[in-house]
């Protein structure tokens, strides 16, 4: 069985953990295309490791850019382990607007809504939800909050 997953942080292509999506030793993943969340969510940078975290607070924040992958059950299980589901991040279905055609080259795919698994950060209190909220994560971006794997 194949699942679609939306990644918005370090697992995106050209980000610090993007290599894990290309590594088939932990299951299969195929890049489908770029996408943006249908609803607005707060994307924040968290703690000393500068973890990207999408918070499950609909209509607060921005529509978030990311990537859509099709993954097999083995990769889904690996992602659950990597994201510490359901403790640190929790996997939930959201609607994502696909904004390009990915590897397929089929332009008819553009702007199609996909239902995707997405990992929401869990360890926060409502009082901690405050701007800045981001619409796109880049570890080496201008905000100077580089992902710290140590």
TrEMBL record:
InterPro entries: AIG2-like_dom, GGACT, GGCT-like, GGCT-like_sf. The lineage of its organism: Eukaryota, Metazoa, Spiralia, Lophotrochozoa, Mollusca. Residues 5-128 form the Gamma-glutamylcyclotransferase AIG2-like domain. Belongs to the gamma-glutamylcyclotransferase family. Pfam families: GGACT. This is Gamma-glutamylcyclotransferase family protein.
